[in-house]
Amino acid sequence: MTAVDTSIAVDRPRSALVHFVRRNVWTLGLVGILVVLLVITKIIQPNYGPPAIQGLAISVLPLAFAAVAQTCAVLSKGIDLSVGSMMAFTSVAAAAMMDNRSESFAILVVVGVLVMGLIIGAVNGALVVFTRVPDIVVTLAMLFVWAGAALLVLQRPGGGSADWLSGLTSGHVFTQWVPKAAVVLLLVIAAVWIPIRRSRLGLSLYAVGSDSLAAFRSGVSVGRTKIFSYMLAGLFSALAGLSLTASTGIGTPVPGPYTLMSVAAVVLGGVSLAGGRGGVFGPVVAVVILSLLRTDMTFLNVNTNLATVAQGVILVGVVMVGSLIQLRRQQ
Amino acid sequence: MATLTEGTNGYLLEATEVSKTYGAVVALRSASLQVLPGEVHALMGANGAGKSTLVKVLTGGVRPDGGVIKVRGAERAIHSPAEARRGGLVSVYQEPALIPDLDIDSNLRLTQTPFELFREWVRELGLEDLDLTAMARDLPLASLRIIDLARALAIEPDVLMLDEMTAALPANLTERVLGVVNGLRGGDRCTIFISHRMTEIASVCDRATVLREGATVGVVDVGEEDSADRIVELMLGDVAVEMAENSEKGQSPHRSEHVRPRIEVRKVGAQSRLRDVSFELYPGEVLGVVALEGQGQDELFDILAGSDRPTTGEVLVDGEAVSFRHPADAIRRGVVFVPADRAEALLMQRPVRDNVALPFSVRLRSWGPIRSKAEKPKVDKAVGRLQIDTRAGREVRFLSGGNQQKVTIARWVAGGVGTMLCFDPTRGIDIRTKHQIYPLLRELAASGTAVLLYTSELSEIQLACDRAIVIFNGEVVAEIDADDADETTLMRAAHNLRSDALLPSQVIASSTRAELAEGEGGGEGRR
Question: Do A13 and B292 touch (CB under 8 A)?
Fold first, then answer.
């Protein structure tokens, strides 16, 4: 009988710290890689200092929000190809509305644009849920819709940004080593994500991505949760668009390579494309790593095209090595 | 029966003439079910009879086309599991409804399960040291099912539905579960219990509703003397006679002594579970393997099927040592595998024909177009031989579990097979299909095939095998001739007990109502 009993026995509870490390091993590993990269950067470019770090933070901001947006969609086993277009649309909308208007009106604009992001996301989600057209098709279609809409708002880069909004991204906090953009990024993500992660809604998000049938049977409303995940993706895309306007001071109607880069960051950030696994902080760190890699290669005078190739190789390499280590640990 | 008035009849749950069709397939024609407060009610029927569909209708997983559902006399329309849950209808499904990527704690929060009650039930069900921070994905299936059950019990629903709760559970846990279900009797709530195992029904249920082909064909009082026979009769309808003949045909054990064994397993060990297993499998015999959950049988079958490699010992096929690196190597040597989980063997979204043809169209090793003309007769022959119901055959996933399992066997039969490894092929399959599978295995053996059959249902050894080996703790502890292999003997051997020792499980050895009365007084469940 005892032999049977052991076959269903479960690991004993571990200490909280060990537990935390185990859960976040991927993100912590990425932070380690980032630190190593910073050291390397300092070695190859000895005068790499606070201004460069501030510049890095500002340049990373839009893509970091985009990566979080993509993470929200991917966690519920979806994917949002319209992230880049939504960014362009919200960016030009904000820039056009804020152009030559008062600082206080800009507050209204920012709130309005964020609400717009939620609505656009809800449209994406509703189309996926109610028409049962695959996520990838719906969001691909929306990619064209919002890219076109962005060009309808502004034919060429233009518009403006409120000073307080631009001020949020430049400069530093406390010491010159802490860029304001990074603080804003972390505060915004934490303010939106952590309450959600702790709520039943957040659990549902993971549940639907992990096993939608089991989630359904556990009493989760699968459709509503999916729509919610796309609303979050829309909200963070709008934040990404706003940060684009804030950091450049204008709106650009042609989306950058943000959609595919956000997917790359999600993968590198330890979020499973099969849904249900990962968090938002991994992809954010991944974005910084990808950006810093590019900087380093510029410092080393590597041909930019070759740098792009290298970026791809590193992406595959890191994910592969990471998976191998995880496989080893499981054995 | 259709016009029972509200409140007067005292039923806790009353479903009347529920129907549901999927395209051309009728899952439920006219299913009715009345459950009294305080009773454990069995829902029985062959696979495809509509039990699971009825449960899904009652818990909001499936919307019925017609029929009335009343809870405590009030009519209810249930649109989703969440709504059913709020209305006090909770089901434990065959596949645990736990989220693999969330830890147990989060899973409990997701369903808003009362924590303390859950703890108590888990302890009562025999999972002592459960780590709530463990990911559901990392836990064995048996534990997940127990957790799922405890979670449902902790919600204290009015109607608790258990769909094949004891399938895939080791004997000691089965016993605990039956004890708990038994303890649910009496009081204001009720339990609907689905199981293929007659002894379990007899030991915990008060009444049984029998479904056949989507309709309720009778309600049997389990306490009555010949209730088991009546249930079987109702379940099988007109095929009962045919079945009896079949099982007699199946009883023709013969063993050729002086033939070279088809497979010799010599001192094979792997990982920690499988330590030292040796036996021979001869052509023309069905060799049973008996073991409690997790004694190394999974590893043994993986090794023989080419999915895994032994760390010690060797395997000989036709007298030649082999080292399979891939299931394709095993298949090339004529060693094929039928897993318990059909999903592991079938292309669920392809038709029956493609599934049956796959192994030998791959074997042709030609890169050209598939020769469907050459395929067809073979496939048709196999489909006919196994009596596969192909009406829903556009995609295999639309077939019932029994028919799916027949397809997994048919795909090996079609191309001809030397050795068939069957790992619990009748798990979760109805009696009728089971009794088609046993003669089939016998038939294969008669034509010279060597069959290795692991089964979690001990009665199958005498029905299908010539002899049986018993594995305990990674070693072969007994070899028993089919004639002597009654359930008690096998159970003792599986627990590695001497034949005069007492059995740990009374429920499984034999369950009479007298023993039950004792069990009830034992205070196993909380009330």
Answer: no
- Look up tokens 């510049």; give the residue: A55
A156 inside 8 A of chain B by CB:
no
CB-CB contact of B17 with B71 (8 Å): no
Helix axes A222-248, A200-210, angle to 10 degrees: 110
Rounded mean pLDDT of chain A?
A: 87
A60 vs A312: CA distance, rounded Å: 18
Of all residues in chain B, the one with the smallest CA distance to A200 is B110
Q: Among candidates A302, A309, A292, which has minimal Cα distance to A38?
A: A292
B93 contacts chain A (CB < 8 A):
yes
Sign, CA dihedral B69-B73-B75-B78, equals negative
Low-confidence ranges of chain B (pLDDT < 50): 1-7, 239-256, 500-527
Cα–Cα distance, A255 to A261 (Å, whole number) = 12
Residues 443-472 of B with CB under 8 A from A: 472
- Please state, in angstroms and rounded to a whole number, the distance separating the CA atoms of residues B415 and B398: 24
At A268-303, the pLDDT tens digits run 998 888 888 888 999 999 999 999 988 888 888 888
Residues 6+ apart with CB under 8 A from B394: B351
Distance from CA of A296 to the nearest CA of B (A): 37
Domains of chain A, first to last: 26-273+280-330 (1.10.3470)
Tens digit of each residue's pLDDT (9 = 90 or more) over B419-474: 999 998 887 777 778 888 888 889 888 888 999 999 877 788 888 999 999 998 88
Residues of chain A with pLDDT under 70: 1-14, 329-331
Find the angle CA(A89)-CA(A93)-CA(A96) to the nearest 5 degrees. 140
Q: Does B495 contact chain A (CB < 8 Å)? A: yes
Query: Chain A closest CA to B196's CA: distance in Å?
Result: 23
Token pair 């069995």 in the structure block, residue: B42
Any CB–CB contact under 8 A between B143 and chain A? yes
How close does chain A come to B96, measured CA to CA in Å?
7
Residue pair B44/B231 in contact (Cβ under 8 Å)? The answer is yes
Residue with tokens 């890095």: A56
Q: A99 in contact with B at a CB cutoff of 8 Å? A: no
Q: Do A3 and B170 touch (CB under 8 A)?
A: no
Q: Does A206 touch chain B (CB under 8 A)?
A: yes
Residues 244-283 of A with CB under 8 A from B: 276-277
Beta strands (DSSP E) in B435-524 are 450-454, 467-472, 475-481
Q: Which of A10, A209, A217 faces B97 most closely, judged by CB atoms?
A: A217
Contact B95 A214 (CB under 8 A): yes
Amino acid at B223: G
Judge whether B164 and B94 are in contact, CB under 8 Å. yes
Residue A139 in tokens: 């969001």
∠ CA(A296), CA(A88), CA(A275), 5° rounding? 75
